[in-house]
Design brief:
With 177 residues, the protein is mostly helical. It is 67% helix and 11% strand. It is elongated and about 65 Å long.
């Protein structure tokens, strides 16, 4: 997904690695796109070697130079194929770690299971709050959010809410309610 996001951003305008990192952070793509910010420079080097992108120029900023990249025609074609592949590939995923732990629940004390599930619920609640906070920033922005982006945000909320509900139900069962 890093390659897809990097090429997508470069299709909008030439950017440096730092600019790409900032854009990914601003768009919260680390969360919804699974992009690790540390993987951007590696992706840039590989994409350049494959001639999907090229150096548009080198800018001097203080004592540092920053390389600005732009997408090539070959890169635009590759971006299209990556987008089509990402739309075609199923994105259904299950909380397999949780399910595996639940399948062996009888191997640990009930109190330990409850404590671990409460910790997971806290993490999920924090994720929910992070999405709310980022969405609040989008609402305050002057940029209008697209219908597709809003549907994506709504889906993220629904997924997290479903997981919150599932953990709450598990905790009730374990508590004997």
């Amino acid at each position: 997904m890093t390659r897809l996001i990097v090429l997508g951003l470069l299709s909008e305008k030439p950017m440096s690695g730092y600019d790409i990192q900032q854009s990914i952070s601003d768009r919260d793509a680390e969360r919804w796109g699974g992009v690790l910010v540390g993987s951007i420079y590696h992706a840039l080097k590989k994409l350049e070697k494959e001639q999907q992108i090229e150096v548009a120029g080198v800018e001097q900023t203080g004592h540092r130079q920053k390389t600005v990249y732009q997408i090539t025609d070959q890169g635009r074609n590759y971006l299209q194929s990556l987008v089509i592949d990402s739309l075609r590939t199923t994105s259904v995923s299950y909380p397999t770690t949780l399910y595996s732990g639940l399948s062996l629940l009888d191997k640990i004390p009930r109190e330990a299971a409850i404590k671990a599930l409460k910790a997971q619920k806290d993490s999920i609640d924090q994720e929910y709050e992070a999405i709310i906070e980022k969405n609040r920033g989008n609402e305050e922005s002057e940029e209008e959010i697209s219908e597709i982006s809003q549907l994506t945000i709504d889906n993220m909320f629904a997924i997290v809410e479903q997981q919150q509900h599932y953990i709450e139900c598990l905790l009730k069962v374990l508590a004997g309610e």
